[in-house]
Amino acid sequence: MSSLARLAEFIYIFNKYREIAEKSIRDYLEYFATKKPISPETREIDRFVKWYQTDSNTRIRYMTLQQEIDIAIDKAETRAAEAEARADEANARANEANARADEANARIAEVEARANEMEKKLREHGLL
pTM here? Predict the structure, then answer.
């Protein structure tokens, strides 16, 4: 399943959390959809979320991890762009080589046609 499909499914569930029969699951989904704790479990989750949001060390670790992820993504995008540029250059060189080969084939065809004409004239004059 693609990440977009998972996101769509996730959003669908969030919009349909009231229809979930199991109360504990419904409470979790409602908390994640609304950010309003309504049960002891979701209040506990909310307490942890607030603590993590205010804890300096956690924020620094999160930011460092997020920066590392961003840097890795940037590097991957750069490598992909460089690879695409190299592929474009290789395709351009291949197209140039194909054009030169086509020109050479056209010249060969012209020379063969002239040779055939000369051979025909020589035959007409009985020299072949």
Answer: 0.43
Instruction: Enumerate the domain spans of the chain.
Output: 1-54
Residue type for position 26: R
Per residue of the chain (128 residues), what is the pLDDT tens digit? 566 777 676 676 667 767 777 787 888 888 888 888 989 999 999 998 888 888 888 877 777 888 888 889 999 999 999 999 999 999 999 999 999 999 999 999 999 999 999 999 999 998 87
Tokens of 70: 């961003």
Nearby residues of 31 by Cβ (< 8 Å), 6 or more positions away: 37, 38, 39, 42, 45, 46
Chain-centre distance for alpha carbon 120: 61
Radius of gyration of the chain (CA): 36
**Type of residue found at 22:** E
Neighbours of 36 (CB within 10 A): 9
Distance CA 12, CA 28 (A): 15
The tally of CA atoms less than 13 A away on the side-chain side of residue 7 is 3
